[in-house]
Amino acid sequence: MTELLFTSKSFVPEYPLEEADVCFLGIPFDSTATAIGNQRFGPPTVRYALKNAISYVPERNKNPLKELKVCDVGDVDVAFGDYEETSFRIRDTIDSIFKINPKIFLVVIGGEHLITLPIVEALKPKTIVHLDAHRDLVSSDEEKFAHNTWAYFASNEGFRIVQIGVRSWEEVEEENRKKFKIMNNSKGLKGPIYLSIDMDVFDPAYAPDTGFKEPNGLSPREVFEIIDKVFEKKVIGMDVVEISSDRFNNPTSELAARTILRALSNLKR
Protein backbone atom coordinates (compact mmCIF):
# COMPACT_ATOMS: atom_id res chain seq x y z
CA MET A 1 0.00 0.00 0.00
CA THR A 2 1.32 3.44 -0.89
CA GLU A 3 2.02 5.59 2.17
CA LEU A 4 0.01 8.81 2.29
CA LEU A 5 2.67 11.34 3.18
CA PHE A 6 0.58 14.49 3.32
CA THR A 7 -2.49 13.48 5.32
CA SER A 8 -2.98 13.84 9.05
CA LYS A 9 -5.26 12.61 11.81
CA SER A 10 -6.12 14.02 15.19
CA PHE A 11 -3.76 11.62 16.90
CA VAL A 12 -0.48 10.30 15.51
CA PRO A 13 0.24 7.50 15.87
CA GLU A 14 -3.25 6.06 16.13
CA TYR A 15 -3.85 2.44 17.18
CA PRO A 16 -6.56 -0.10 16.32
CA LEU A 17 -9.40 -0.22 18.83
CA GLU A 18 -8.36 -3.71 19.88
CA GLU A 19 -4.94 -2.45 21.01
CA ALA A 20 -5.81 1.00 22.33
CA ASP A 21 -5.84 2.26 25.91
CA VAL A 22 -8.08 5.23 25.14
CA CYS A 23 -10.97 5.63 22.71
CA PHE A 24 -12.26 9.04 21.57
CA LEU A 25 -15.90 9.27 20.49
CA GLY A 26 -17.74 12.40 19.33
CA ILE A 27 -21.47 12.90 19.84
CA PRO A 28 -22.54 16.09 18.00
CA PHE A 29 -26.10 16.20 19.37
CA ASP A 30 -27.61 19.54 20.46
CA SER A 31 -31.31 19.29 19.77
CA THR A 32 -32.61 20.27 23.23
CA ALA A 33 -30.07 22.96 24.16
CA THR A 34 -32.24 25.64 22.61
CA ALA A 35 -30.89 28.78 24.33
CA ILE A 36 -27.64 28.81 22.38
CA GLY A 37 -26.84 26.18 19.77
CA ASN A 38 -23.58 25.10 18.18
CA GLN A 39 -22.85 22.32 20.71
CA ARG A 40 -22.70 19.99 17.72
CA PHE A 41 -19.37 21.58 16.82
CA GLY A 42 -17.74 20.43 20.04
CA PRO A 43 -16.19 17.24 18.60
CA PRO A 44 -14.30 18.84 15.69
CA THR A 45 -13.19 21.92 17.62
CA VAL A 46 -11.90 19.92 20.60
CA ARG A 47 -10.16 17.40 18.35
CA TYR A 48 -8.46 20.29 16.56
CA ALA A 49 -7.40 21.76 19.89
CA LEU A 50 -6.01 18.40 21.02
CA LYS A 51 -4.11 18.02 17.77
CA ASN A 52 -2.43 21.40 18.22
CA ALA A 53 -1.96 21.35 22.00
CA ILE A 54 1.28 20.60 23.77
CA SER A 55 0.22 17.28 25.25
CA TYR A 56 2.82 17.19 28.02
CA VAL A 57 1.25 17.84 31.45
CA PRO A 58 4.04 19.45 33.53
CA GLU A 59 2.30 19.16 36.90
CA ARG A 60 2.16 15.39 36.54
CA ASN A 61 5.27 14.87 34.41
CA LYS A 62 3.17 12.90 31.91
CA ASN A 63 2.52 13.07 28.18
CA PRO A 64 -0.65 11.03 27.82
CA LEU A 65 -0.89 11.18 24.02
CA LYS A 66 2.59 9.69 23.80
CA GLU A 67 2.41 7.28 26.72
CA LEU A 68 -1.06 5.87 25.96
CA LYS A 69 -2.28 4.09 22.83
CA VAL A 70 -5.06 6.24 21.40
CA CYS A 71 -7.87 5.40 18.96
CA ASP A 72 -10.44 7.82 17.55
CA VAL A 73 -13.52 6.02 16.24
CA GLY A 74 -15.15 9.20 14.93
CA ASP A 75 -18.62 10.56 15.66
CA VAL A 76 -21.92 8.88 16.37
CA ASP A 77 -24.27 9.49 13.44
CA VAL A 78 -26.88 11.28 15.53
CA ALA A 79 -30.51 11.81 14.56
CA PHE A 80 -31.00 15.54 14.96
CA GLY A 81 -34.21 16.36 16.80
CA ASP A 82 -34.75 12.73 17.82
CA TYR A 83 -33.34 11.87 21.24
CA GLU A 84 -34.82 8.38 21.39
CA GLU A 85 -33.13 7.27 18.17
CA THR A 86 -29.91 9.08 19.05
CA SER A 87 -29.78 7.47 22.51
CA PHE A 88 -30.19 4.04 20.90
CA ARG A 89 -27.30 4.77 18.54
CA ILE A 90 -25.11 6.00 21.41
CA ARG A 91 -25.75 2.90 23.54
CA ASP A 92 -25.24 0.58 20.59
CA THR A 93 -21.97 2.27 19.62
CA ILE A 94 -20.58 2.12 23.16
CA ASP A 95 -21.65 -1.53 23.55
CA SER A 96 -19.79 -2.33 20.33
CA ILE A 97 -16.65 -0.49 21.48
CA PHE A 98 -16.50 -2.42 24.75
CA LYS A 99 -17.20 -5.76 23.08
CA ILE A 100 -14.09 -5.19 20.99
CA ASN A 101 -12.00 -3.85 23.89
CA PRO A 102 -13.51 -4.30 27.38
CA LYS A 103 -10.59 -2.46 29.06
CA ILE A 104 -10.72 0.69 26.94
CA PHE A 105 -11.02 4.12 28.59
CA LEU A 106 -13.76 6.09 26.85
CA VAL A 107 -13.48 9.85 26.20
CA VAL A 108 -16.65 11.37 24.77
CA ILE A 109 -16.78 14.86 23.26
CA GLY A 110 -20.22 16.48 23.08
CA GLY A 111 -22.65 17.80 22.25
CA GLU A 112 -25.17 18.87 24.84
CA HIS A 113 -25.34 17.34 28.30
CA LEU A 114 -28.25 15.03 27.54
CA ILE A 115 -25.80 12.68 25.80
CA THR A 116 -24.47 11.65 29.23
CA LEU A 117 -27.68 9.74 30.01
CA PRO A 118 -27.38 7.03 27.32
CA ILE A 119 -23.62 6.84 27.95
CA VAL A 120 -24.07 5.90 31.61
CA GLU A 121 -26.95 3.60 30.70
CA ALA A 122 -24.47 1.71 28.54
CA LEU A 123 -21.48 1.82 30.94
CA LYS A 124 -23.42 1.36 34.20
CA PRO A 125 -20.95 3.06 36.58
CA LYS A 126 -21.56 2.96 40.31
CA THR A 127 -21.05 6.72 40.64
CA ILE A 128 -21.36 9.68 38.27
CA VAL A 129 -19.17 12.63 39.22
CA HIS A 130 -20.87 15.61 37.63
CA LEU A 131 -18.97 18.91 37.28
CA ASP A 132 -21.37 21.65 36.24
CA ALA A 133 -22.71 25.11 37.02
CA HIS A 134 -26.22 23.60 37.05
CA ARG A 135 -27.88 20.63 38.71
CA ASP A 136 -29.68 19.38 35.57
CA LEU A 137 -32.33 17.93 37.90
CA VAL A 138 -35.33 19.72 36.38
CA SER A 139 -38.51 17.65 36.49
CA SER A 140 -42.11 18.35 35.58
CA ASP A 141 -45.33 16.54 34.74
CA GLU A 142 -44.14 16.32 31.14
CA GLU A 143 -40.70 14.93 32.11
CA LYS A 144 -39.06 15.67 28.77
CA PHE A 145 -35.55 14.48 28.01
CA ALA A 146 -33.36 17.57 27.80
CA HIS A 147 -29.94 18.98 28.62
CA ASN A 148 -31.24 20.15 32.03
CA THR A 149 -33.14 16.96 32.95
CA TRP A 150 -30.60 14.19 32.26
CA ALA A 151 -29.38 14.02 35.89
CA TYR A 152 -32.97 13.71 37.09
CA PHE A 153 -33.55 10.72 34.82
CA ALA A 154 -30.18 9.19 35.75
CA SER A 155 -30.99 9.55 39.45
CA ASN A 156 -34.42 8.03 38.85
CA GLU A 157 -32.69 5.04 37.26
CA GLY A 158 -30.64 4.50 40.41
CA PHE A 159 -27.30 6.08 39.52
CA ARG A 160 -25.49 7.71 42.44
CA ILE A 161 -24.50 11.25 41.46
CA VAL A 162 -21.99 13.59 43.06
CA GLN A 163 -22.26 17.20 41.85
CA ILE A 164 -19.40 19.70 42.13
CA GLY A 165 -19.27 23.34 41.06
CA VAL A 166 -23.05 23.86 40.95
CA ARG A 167 -24.08 27.46 41.60
CA SER A 168 -27.45 27.92 39.85
CA TRP A 169 -30.66 25.87 40.12
CA GLU A 170 -34.45 26.01 40.23
CA GLU A 171 -36.50 25.26 43.34
CA VAL A 172 -37.61 21.87 42.04
CA GLU A 173 -33.99 20.88 41.52
CA GLU A 174 -33.21 21.47 45.19
CA GLU A 175 -36.15 19.22 46.08
CA ASN A 176 -34.83 16.53 43.75
CA ARG A 177 -31.30 16.89 45.15
CA LYS A 178 -32.65 16.09 48.60
CA LYS A 179 -34.89 13.32 47.28
CA PHE A 180 -32.01 11.51 45.58
CA LYS A 181 -29.46 12.39 48.31
CA ILE A 182 -27.04 13.92 45.84
CA MET A 183 -23.72 14.88 47.42
CA ASN A 184 -21.59 17.94 46.63
CA ASN A 185 -18.04 16.71 47.30
CA SER A 186 -15.70 13.92 46.29
CA LYS A 187 -15.34 12.30 49.71
CA GLY A 188 -16.05 8.57 49.87
CA LEU A 189 -16.38 8.03 46.13
CA LYS A 190 -17.13 4.48 45.07
CA GLY A 191 -15.99 3.12 41.72
CA PRO A 192 -16.35 2.45 38.96
CA ILE A 193 -16.85 6.14 38.26
CA TYR A 194 -17.98 8.05 35.19
CA LEU A 195 -16.82 11.68 35.03
CA SER A 196 -19.02 14.21 33.25
CA ILE A 197 -17.72 17.75 32.77
CA ASP A 198 -19.97 20.55 31.57
CA MET A 199 -17.63 23.32 30.47
CA ASP A 200 -19.75 25.92 32.26
CA VAL A 201 -18.38 24.57 35.55
CA PHE A 202 -15.46 26.88 34.75
CA ASP A 203 -15.87 30.58 35.33
CA PRO A 204 -16.83 32.35 32.07
CA ALA A 205 -13.50 34.18 32.18
CA TYR A 206 -11.88 30.83 31.30
CA ALA A 207 -14.67 29.22 29.24
CA PRO A 208 -16.75 31.93 27.53
CA ASP A 209 -18.17 29.69 24.79
CA THR A 210 -20.87 27.77 26.66
CA GLY A 211 -24.61 27.90 26.28
CA PHE A 212 -25.54 28.73 29.87
CA LYS A 213 -22.84 30.84 31.51
CA GLU A 214 -22.87 31.46 35.26
CA PRO A 215 -20.55 33.80 37.18
CA ASN A 216 -18.33 32.76 40.09
CA GLY A 217 -17.23 29.52 38.50
CA LEU A 218 -14.21 27.34 39.17
CA SER A 219 -10.72 28.01 37.89
CA PRO A 220 -8.82 25.47 35.75
CA ARG A 221 -6.52 24.77 38.71
CA GLU A 222 -9.51 23.92 40.93
CA VAL A 223 -11.09 21.66 38.30
CA PHE A 224 -7.81 19.87 37.57
CA GLU A 225 -7.27 19.19 41.28
CA ILE A 226 -10.77 17.72 41.48
CA ILE A 227 -10.05 15.52 38.46
CA ASP A 228 -6.84 14.22 40.06
CA LYS A 229 -8.79 13.40 43.22
CA VAL A 230 -11.52 11.55 41.32
CA PHE A 231 -8.94 9.47 39.46
CA GLU A 232 -7.63 8.10 42.74
CA LYS A 233 -10.56 5.71 42.29
CA LYS A 234 -11.33 3.61 39.21
CA VAL A 235 -12.71 5.82 36.43
CA ILE A 236 -14.06 4.02 33.35
CA GLY A 237 -14.90 6.97 31.13
CA MET A 238 -15.55 10.68 30.86
CA ASP A 239 -17.16 13.34 28.73
CA VAL A 240 -16.76 17.06 28.11
CA VAL A 241 -19.94 18.77 26.93
CA GLU A 242 -21.70 22.09 26.25
CA ILE A 243 -19.10 23.88 24.14
CA SER A 244 -21.15 26.29 22.04
CA SER A 245 -18.74 27.65 19.46
CA ASP A 246 -18.43 26.82 15.77
CA ARG A 247 -14.92 28.37 15.61
CA PHE A 248 -11.62 26.56 15.73
CA ASN A 249 -9.14 27.96 18.27
CA ASN A 250 -11.89 29.11 20.61
CA PRO A 251 -10.76 29.27 24.26
CA THR A 252 -13.43 26.88 25.57
CA SER A 253 -12.46 24.06 23.20
CA GLU A 254 -8.81 24.64 24.02
CA LEU A 255 -9.56 24.43 27.74
CA ALA A 256 -11.64 21.28 27.10
CA ALA A 257 -8.62 19.74 25.38
CA ARG A 258 -6.40 20.65 28.31
CA THR A 259 -9.00 19.18 30.70
CA ILE A 260 -8.99 15.89 28.79
CA LEU A 261 -5.19 15.78 28.84
CA ARG A 262 -5.18 16.37 32.59
CA ALA A 263 -7.62 13.49 33.08
CA LEU A 264 -5.65 11.16 30.82
CA SER A 265 -2.43 11.99 32.67
CA ASN A 266 -3.91 10.03 35.57
CA LEU A 267 -4.25 6.81 33.55
CA LYS A 268 -1.76 3.99 33.69
CA ARG A 269 -1.18 1.54 30.85
- Low-confidence regions: none
State the major sheet: 7 strands, parallel
Query: What percentage of the residues does DSSP assign to strands (E)?
Result: 15-25%
* Quaternary state of the chains: single chain
The CATH topology label is Arginase, Chain A
* SSE series: EHHEHEHEHEHEHEH
CATH-scheme architecture: 3-Layer(aba) Sandwich
Write down the Rg.
17 Å
Straight-line N-to-C gap:
31 Å
Number of domains: 1
Strand neighbour order, sheet with most strands? 2-1-3-7-6-4-5
| Text of the CATH class | Alpha Beta
CATH evolutionary superfamily: Ureohydrolase domain
What overall geometry do the principal axes of the alpha carbons give? Answer: globular
Counted beta strands:
7
**Considering DSSP H and I runs of 4 or more, what fraction of the residues is helical?**
25-40%
- Please identify the structural class as seen in this structure: alpha/beta
How many helical stretches? 8
Q: Taking all residues together, what is the mean pLDDT?
A: 94
Could you walk me through the main structural features you see in this protein, from its secondary elements to its overall organization?
The chain has 269 residues and is of the alpha/beta class. The protein has a single domain, classed as Ureohydrolase domain (Arginase, Chain A, 3-Layer(aba) Sandwich). It is built from 8 helices and 7 strands. A 7-stranded parallel beta sheet has the order 2-1-3-7-6-4-5, sandwiched between helices.
Topology diagram in text:
Blueprint: E1 22-27, H1 42-52, H2 64-67, E2 70-75, H3 83-100, E3 105-110, H4 116-123, E4 127-131, H5 150-156, E5 160-164, H6 171-180, E6 193-198, H7 220-230, E7 235-241, H8 251-264
Parallel strand pairs: 1-2, 1-3, 3-7, 4-5, 4-6, 6-7
Helix pairs in contact: 1-8, 3-4, 4-5, 7-8
